[in-house]
Write a structure and sequence with these properties.
Order of helices and strands: HHEEHEEEEEE
Strand content: 35-45%
Low-confidence stretches: none
Number of helices: 3
Number of domains: 1
Structural class: alpha+beta
Distance between the termini: 32 Å
Radius of gyration: 14 Å
Largest sheet: 8 strands, mixed
Shape: globular
């Protein structure tokens, strides 16, 4: 069944807890809709200088009627990438959007290749949790 933003947000909070994300980051998401960006397990707020990332987040949420709950940042040989972890609008998919136990998970995401947008795509990424943060591995 199709869901609204509040239902997706509640599910996103559950996913964040499954990933072991640091409580204050979860609270900022709940109270102020702030999505944390993680790089090497360290979380930070999307700053003013990352306006392009903020625009991409909003674009994906509006076009796909989904909710982004966390972002990882990494650089590969093929480009600078942001993995936007998402909750889709179809609640029947939710049990498949994050799989794993302990500190290793497979999460559904939109991977934005900032250097070559044609290489951006939806799919699953491997996520490692540690000390309240996450990293794509």
């Amino acid at each position: 069944m199709k869901t609204n933003r509040e239902e997706r947000k509640a599910q996103a909070v559950e996913f964040m807890m499954m990933l072991g994300i640091y409580g204050p980051y979860i609270n900022e998401f709940i109270e102020h809709d702030k999505v944390c960006v993680f790089e090497r397990f360290i979380g930070f707020e999307i700053g003013k200088e990352e306006a392009e990332l903020r625009d991409k987040l909003r674009e994906i949420e509006q076009e796909r009627n989904c909710t982004v709950y966390a972002i990882t940042h990494e650089t590969f040989g093929f480009g600078e990438c942001y993995s936007l972890l998402i909750v889709t609008d179809e609640d029947s998919d939710w049990d498949k959007l994050i799989l794993g136990i302990g500190d290793k998970h497979r999460c559904y995401a939109y991977v934005w290749n900032k250097d070559d947008d044609r290489r951006s795509e939806f799919g699953f990424v491997s996520i490692q949790s540690f000390g309240g943060g996450i990293e794509r591995v």
